[in-house]
Amino acid sequence: MDTYRPPIGTSVENLDTPLFVVDMDSLEHNFRVVAEAYKNSSCKMREHAKNIKTPFLARMQIEAGGTVGGVCCAKVSEAEAMFLGGITDILIPNQIVSEDKIVRLCGLARRGDIKVCVDSLKNVRDISDISVRERVTIGVLIEINTGMDRAGIRTIEEGVELARIISELPGIEFRGVMSHQHLYGHPTRDERYLEGAKMIQICLDVKKAIEDDGIPVEIVSSGETWSYDLARDIGGITEVEGGTYALMGTSAKHMGMFKYAGKVLASVISTPRPDFAIGDVGSRGLAVGGSLIPDVDGLSGVTVESIASEQIVLKSDGEMPLKIGDKFMLNPGYQDGLVNQWDRFVGIRNGLVEGVWDIPGRGCFH
Known about the structure:
Distance between the termini: 18 Å
Mean pLDDT: 96
Structural class: alpha/beta
Shape: elongated
Order of helices and strands: EHEHEHEHEHEHEHEHEHEEHEEEEHEE
CATH superfamily of the largest domain: Alanine racemase
Helix content: 25-40%
Low-confidence stretches: none
Number of strands: 17
CATH architecture of the largest domain: Alpha-Beta Barrel
Oligomer: single chain
CATH class of the largest domain: Alpha Beta
């Protein structure tokens, strides 16, 4: 557990490193982009809390506008953290199958609008049985596989049949359909729209078939950061599960309308060669893997050469501009795993600490 909490007003130059910081101007910019995008739209944002893991930041987006007034969470423990922070409209776009976790969902449902996704009849019946026993009602959405080949039903017929059964069982309420998509690389806007529309249409086809069967579909939850504008423009989507946009990462650098907000502050501890610098943060603080390599913020020609568990090696295409003791910022590759490594956010504005906020959803694996 990290106990470091810098006082408000501390300058960046005097902060201990390594440190996870949030550029508040950039964060607020990202929230304004979303608020403006959905201001006059029937489609709204349901921010994915797995990327921020704290109700403080989630409430910032809700207050900025453009949202459904709630969030989605990857798991029950994250939902509990959001709920304790005052956010009671929660969707879990995942399957919750064990009895103890379904009981915990029921506890939240006594005081909030709790919804969960399903893709199997057994899970539906289990949720129904436990909800009846606990005397609550849980909202249920059907997850549809739209290309990621993870969870989700595979056919339209399967979706219609599942919707019929959900509508007939006690203790649960059919609320709609949900899907998630992924597009690799850094596509252009036209590529995003073309490929994203194909994937989302699969979800919309299931929604239409369920409605044609006489069952109302209230919620169509689909889309994410890379398709936040497509989901609004395509029609038929009621909410988008965007997450990366809030703090951003190099994996989404093609989404240039959003700014890097979540960063890792580090210090140079060694300069063994004129073009090399060693920093005091490594993979344990950056959550790197595969192509998720951070960028060095604001230093042209300086790139990441390699990363060890506690150190990072930077290389310059000329003489290294960083000296021993200098601080530098890293723009992480992907925020999900990064946020989970830290106990709190340190918000900075104009080079000074503005606030320090705990991350109650981090490390919640149960």
